[in-house]
Queue: 2 jobs
Job 1
Amino acid sequence: MTPFWALVRKELAVLFGSPLAYVVLTLVALVSSLIFFDHLRIYNQILFVFASTTMGGFETDTIPDYVNLRDQVFFPVMENLGFVLILLVPMITMRIFAEERSRGTDELLVTTLLTPSQIVLAKFAVTFAFVALMMAASFVYPALAIREGGLGLEHLLAVFLGLLFHAFGLAALGLACSAFSRTQLVAAVGALALGFVLWDFSWASGFLSEGVIRFLEGIALHPHYRFFAEGVVILSHLAYFVGLVIVCFALARFSYDLRRVAG
Amino acid sequence: MREVGLLGLVAIAFGAGSYVATRDANQSLTWFHALNLAGGSLALLVAALASLGRLRAAAQPGLRAVLGRGLLGVLGAVALAVGLERAAHWSGLEFDWTLERLYVLSEATEMGLAELDEPVRATLYYDEEDPRARSTRLLLRALAATGRVETAEKKLGASPEEEDRFEVGSSNTVVVRLGDRFESVARPTEGTFYEALYRLRSLDSGLVYMARGTGEGDIERTADDGFSGLAQALLTEGYRIRSFVPAQGTPIPPEVDALVWLAPRRRLPETTLAEVRRYLAGGGRLVVFLEPGVESGLEEVIAEWGLRSPDAVLVDPASGRMDGDAPGVNPLAFHYGSHPISRGLGASRMTFFRGARSFELRKPEVEDDLWSVVLASSRSWLAEDLEVLERRSPPLRPASARSDYHPLVVAGRYQREAGETRIVAFGDADLASNRHLRTLYNLDLTLNAVHWVASREPAIKLLPKARVAGGDQFALPIQNTLTRFYGLGLLLPELLLMAGALVWVRTRSA
């Protein structure tokens, strides 16, 4: 076994040996299902009210066009879950680098045959695998419900893809914060604050110029993430999240250089 | 200094968060927002400067190269990320995974736009809180990608005079302009945009005579059993429509591009039938809709052209019960013959018939061309007892009845000395009624039949659906899924939590 795979195995063992990981997995599975089923329940209620015989039913065009799965279920579920992930993902990423730094075991890693890039790659890969598992667990019940309804499975897949890439982006931000911190709490709060700040800049449109807002929207998470809820997968938005991961990877790698220089 | 940076980030997050939370009620920045945002930014700046200063002080000359390479690596990663995003943006690749492919333009819309001499201008008037504007923007984006539509957006209320002029009544309205003419589309979908486009173009596709006076379907009636929808669709396609009352003894002029006869309920006078025979013999063009249980005389006329329709109800066991009718009497057709009228239709693009009769084909002359355009399934058979339409119980198939692919729509083309005659016969008229015209692909089939009869083959196409939003207005089996969620559905979180508890106990005891 190469040192790289040995490190991946060790990281997996540490991650799945932590009770916190299971708590986060449980929370994500539970919260996502509750959000999904709650919106589904409300959507069905509205639909049945409009479709009832006293209102004229489906045939008479009395159901407003905004009462549909896209606007009443997929979009709000994705908005809510996207926000919830900002809170939950840092709980996973906070310890990945910071714990080793606080214990001083990161120095040992650097003395092995592994390069800093390989160390960072192993930690990113394991974290992303866990995040993918987390998102898969959160989508079991929504996928079942949509499949039983006989519609929109591809649309749900677009939503899932958006959430997955969003979670990868947040995980990358969290890992970068963890790489620059000695304490897990600082890493978690930093990732949370960064995720929240980067979420959306449309709120600043009232007092910033259009050019600045366009730039900020270009680096914000939400403008790239929201299209997935519409069932449209745009390559440039996927590329944004890949780019975010690349930058965070480079920053985490840079933290090793910085430590060599600044201690 | 890291602590200062962290505090700065938290302050910015709180400043932005509180502004987002209160901006609906209070549009301006309060001292709390401003203090947090400014203080947070300042703290971040101080932390960054202090870190740089610390680095300069700590780094030995040999280590500066390491730091430089690291920083170059970060800058390279930023450049790679931006380049990747820009390249993906430039490629324009995107995938529409919506249920009804809402943002993939149909052939009909692309054809319509390509035929224009000048680009169309489409302006969306929207309210910021209107969720529907999101999907309208995506539609406009798809239209703009053709290069034939210039799009713009305006907030509702920003230009009241313009809104009055273009009759903008509500948010999510798109005003489509072509030259000096305009159409307001209040529920923008590709289908409604397409219809607006056709109205703006003022095409002249030809003259259609609609027969009336002997109980035919009424093209002015807007109720479910009327045919106003068909008339409107023909007008949208650029046809001029004239009513034709055969009982008045008026001859059918030869310049008529299509004569449409919507299921007469009574027998036509012999003089009328003679006039139809004369018209067809002279290269006439006829689209006729028949109904079981009615012998109007048109059946005899088209039988002379090889399209014989026995007076029987087609029963297709492959189609289930609908609206409480007996199962099988309302066939859902998904078999199509090779003919321009059925181009693009197939197993996933079905047509719906409600109480239909079938046809038998026999060429009057060797050179004539006859086609079965739409067929029922191989299990279909003909019930001579018309009472099956009234009963709710499943029709019993007599031993003598033959199961086969029975045609529901047929077409014939005949070269005669006086010209080319074309006939399309439908075994049902309900499919073109207001109630069922927009069901599945009924409208496409009906319009394409008229196009073919009128020798307008290039106009044959599948139309974008007008009511796409309704496509996903289905109720999901909520009770079923909720029961599963509260039963089986909680199993996964429970198991995950149990695994976490076990790990915790083992970690503590280790």
Note: Chain B has a mean pLDDT of 86.
Job 2
Amino acid sequence: MVKTKKEHIPFWRIANNIFTYLILIIGVIIAVFPFFWMISTSLMSLGEAQGTRLIPSQIHFENYVEAWKEADFSLYLWNSVRITLITLVGQMTFSILAAYAFARMKFPGRDLIFGIMLSTMMIPGMVLIIPNFLTVTWLGRIGPLKWINNWPALTIPFMGSIFSIFLLRQFFAQIPDELFDAAQIDGAGHFRFLLTVVMPLSRAPLMVIIVLSFIGSWNALAWPMLVTNSPDWRPIAVGLLAFIDEAGQMINYMMAGAFITIIPILILYFFTQKQFTESIARSGMKG
Amino acid sequence: MEKPEISTKTQKNPFKWLTPRRLRIFREYSTAYLMIAPSTILVFLFGIFPVGFALFVSVHKWRLKRGNFVGLKNYVGAVGDIAYLGVFILGIAALVFAFLQFKRVYRQLNEKPQHFWFLLFPSFLQGAATLAFIRWTIILLPNILDIADKIRGVEKTRQLFMQLIREAFTAENILPARAQMLWLITAGLVAGLIVFFKWRNPDNLQHQAEIALSWITFGIGIVLLLFAYQEVMTAYQSAAESGSDPGIIPQLVNISGGVILLFIGWKIWQKAPQASTNRTFFLRIAGAFIFIVGGWLMIGEIPLILSSGDKDLWQGLKVTLFYALGTIPFQLSISLFLAILLFQNLKGSSFFRIMFFMPYVTPTVASAAVFRQLFSNRLQAPVNALLRVFGFEPLKWLWEPKGIFTLIADKMGLTNFPDWAAGPSLALVVIIIFSIWVFVGYDTVIYMAGLGNIPTELSEAAEVDGANKWDIFRFITFPLLSPTTYFLTLIAVIGTFKAFNHIWVMRLPASLETADTFSVVIFTEFFEKLRYGYASALAFVLFAIILSLTYINNKVQGSKVFYG
């Protein structure tokens, strides 16, 4: 009995594997075809791009030059990068400090404040976007700092991130108390302990925050659309959308622009593939 | 080294209570508060305050600039007369909640009930002080907002700004509210201190805070009820002027009566199995049935009232529902299938995972732009070209406002296909396909993590017992995956209401707004039509829907999800 079963297994396994691979390959084709079509169309002449060809007969790299010239992608990319960096610096500093206090210090009202802050994650963005726009306009009008069409409106509202505080707090709380006691005996206070012990240990959650921040600002559309009205600080998603609407029938330029937008994120993805997947899987965010 | 120094200092210190221990605690507290200050201020300014601000905006006529106070008009415009009922129910709910809180604290203090009665008064003062503070901010807010207009065209100087701020705080319209607030705060503090020094028990402070919170809820309930009453009265007045009967009160009575009947029926239904004899059991079931049918008949009016609301809103909700029904089941089943295939430890499974995940990481505007071309209405566009290869007629895809079932019926030669059965428009179907394409990779990764958590012993044991693969999946894998499925469904449902970027890119004028989900409707009201007040009211309707969905989800999680 057992023997006959064993003889059958290889055949079934092969059939099963072929079937599995077939489905997976079809899946990959569906997942990747839009990318393939985008890249290949971006290299075609206009006539070919509007036809039904899948592969360009002659490679037109100049599409990229044209798209780049027409929409000033270098400015948009640079804007997105600097918006991300400013946000990240502020968000990381503030979140690390707050998360440390919430995780490792005792003070009256700690759980209440943290609970209130956590409950704000439930509020849909559409409720916040209108009053925040009014607040930001107001701040820009009364203060010396220009907010609309400038970095403050694009970065400062995102510096207080409950998600980062929550993530870091969970991580900081796991650090054993003995480490802190030892540091205290050595004469280190909270700040020294935070800088020399906690920070080096928490590279993983910080990486998560960095990755999510990059994706977030590459995707940001509604808010930047509201608070920018010239290309000076317009981030890449808004810039690309404007370019697409202007390009009309120039599909090859459009696809070149789309590919330019995707490249930085894809590079980040393929190099930090594992952390990338994990960070997003952990964050539970959607579009 | 440090310790002796501090102790000598405190010995000379006239403030005897400032012992080194207290000093250290004080230092620890202030450091902690300083550390959380920046984040807390930012979260408050851009995450909590805006909710109140949005409420404020939503009860005004507000087009670019603030107009008059209009009460519930925006909400009535959005959902019809149900808006009155909503405020009424919120008020009742606040009262009930306050009552339950009082009862809970009373139970906690059951050893010394006199403390409860003694605490009631100081916490009343504190609660009233908080409400007075809220009232003061609401009256102050317009003054502060107006500063921006006053400063326009004038050179911005610090002096001018300080002067305007001072004017805003001392304007005549807020002085009474300020006096009231200051008196109540002082009285509340004094009363609180008296209680504190009488018992010197930190527990009492907490009880006091809890009772104060109940008083605040109570006050909010009263305010909401008064507001609802006032709004209904104004509606009646304006209707009387035009000589018509708005019929709001009968509606309210009917619907709330219906809800109460439903509730009673449900309670009886739940208690029926406890009946001692068959007769009482059937009597209870019958009673529950009568109550439930009566309740349904009484709330049967709701759709009629709702239909007097905004057409765009119902269209948006319908689109959102189609979008959710079109994406979530497909997305989850495809990704579960892929995850199980990938989980067999095949060669190259990480390659497949990376590829499946790629659509999810791609910036949405770029991938949506690609889909806009793939599903273009041009004859040579890739999808149409594919259709023509197989001998089908090309379609208009994102340019098509007609419902998908109508299109199919047309193909089959059916005429006069009813409008209500039209289904999602073809444009929306493309957006649904796009969403599935994007989120399958994400769901697969999460499902694989879930599969990894299932102990292999179970399926091995089942295999020994002669279970086949389908049985193992049906009776072991799938039930044990239910937390993952629940999590993904919750994320997907919330995501459906948040979905914006890809729809914004793929909605074309030709599709006649048949692809606008609720968030897109709100955003167009705000961004294109500049109706800030109305858009805020819509946003709160959305908020209410999301809250109730989360509540239902939690209930379902309690009963259906199996945590191994």
Note: Chain B has four domains: 1-58, 81-242, 248-306, 311-560.
